Amino acid sequence: MNAAQRLLAAATLAWLAAPAPAQPSGEDLYRTYCAQCHGLQGNGKGINVRDMSVQPRDHTDSKYMAGRTDDELRTAVVEGGQALSKSVLMPPWGSVLEPQEVDALVAYMRELCDCQHGRP
Questions:
Q1: Is 17 exposed, middle or buried, given 0-12, 13-18 or 19+ CB atoms closer than 10 A?
Q2: How many domains are contained in the chain?
């Protein structure tokens, strides 16, 4: 094995031994993709609301959120608000987020409202 091959083998072994990057938490994803409109606390009072004709949903509203299924929340995240006859201002994030990230966001929204579908 020549020096270039040894270097390539060492680099490959180092790459294989490196830990996989950590998956962002639902809270991290919410802060990145949702907080501008829905607010850091999820109360619908993000920094963009004063310029919006339709106010963002308050994800801390347990009564409203308990009436939404996880599939509805996933659809809103993946396809945008228009997919559920909600605001066209809610962008679709399906081309940006992996399915497990969408699930993490839905789980975090359930934490914000302290509710599950059908149970405030």
A1: exposed
A2: 1
